[in-house]
């Protein structure tokens, strides 16, 4: 059984920090190298950074549980005319069990509730498996974008969108 619950307490943010540390190191070190992963974990996925994103920047985080076990998380933000899907991460041993698909249905309901007709995300150009999953889930590649994230690192991404 898949459950999706709003993260709103410090223990929730610490749990997401721990999930991010495991998922990102395993998934992104082969793609971007350890230096960029550690920079991004500290800048975006520490409990402190998550708390600031929720309290000051309009992000909503949700924890994904599979049979009561925390297995991943998502983060969204309502933009002017789109819902920005900022994060969607599932532990590697739980992938392929429709957790991502269930999370995406939940995100679509959120977008509809906000009166939005488009979901937008960015994905590293070399994150091939996730791009394939997004295509299966109905997203299309709309453009490439490069974002400077400090310390000499850039995010070299595609922007993908889904109309709902
Ligand atoms: C992307 C991710 C969230 C998908 O979650 P998941 O629980 O594994 O996905 P699901 O089992 O719900 O699969 C959803 C659909 O994508 C397809 N899919 C998933 N992984 C795939 C892959 N590697 N190649 C092709 N299709 C894939 C599934 O077949 C399914 O399609 P279907 O419904 O037509 O059968 C998960 O794989 C993940 O955390 N990846 C690593 C982290 C990451 O890169 N996150 C995105 C950052 S931008």
TrEMBL record:
Xref: CDD domains: NAT_SF
Q: Which domain of life is it from?
A: Bacteria
Give residue ranges for domain N-acetyltransferase.
Answer: 14-164
Signal peptide boundaries: none
Tell me which Pfam families the record gives.
Answer: Acetyltransf_1
Q: Which PANTHER family match?
A: L-AMINO ACID N-ACETYLTRANSFERASE
Q: This protein is called what?
A: GNAT family N-acetyltransferase
Give the source species: Jejuia spongiicola
């Amino acid at each position: 059984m898949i459950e999706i619950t709003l993260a709103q307490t410090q223990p929730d943010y610490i749990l997401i920090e721990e999930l991010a540390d495991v998922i990102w190191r395993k998934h992104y070190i082969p793609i971007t190298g350890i230096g960029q992963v550690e920079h991004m974990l500290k800048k975006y996925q520490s409990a402190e950074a998550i708390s600031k994103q929720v309290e000051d920047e309009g992000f909503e985080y949700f924890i994904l549980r599979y049979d009561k076990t925390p297995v991943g998380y998502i983060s969204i933000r309502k933009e002017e005319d789109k819902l920005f899907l900022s994060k969607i991460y599932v532990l590697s041993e739980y992938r392929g069990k429709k957790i991502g698909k269930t999370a995406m249905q939940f995100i679509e309901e959120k977008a509809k509730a906000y009166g939005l007709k488009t979901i937008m995300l960015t994905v590293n150009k070399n994150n091939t498996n996730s791009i394939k999953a997004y295509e299966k889930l109905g997203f299309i590649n709309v453009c490439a974008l490069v974002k400077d994230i400090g310390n000499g690192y850039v995010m070299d991404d595609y922007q993908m969108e889904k109309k709902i």
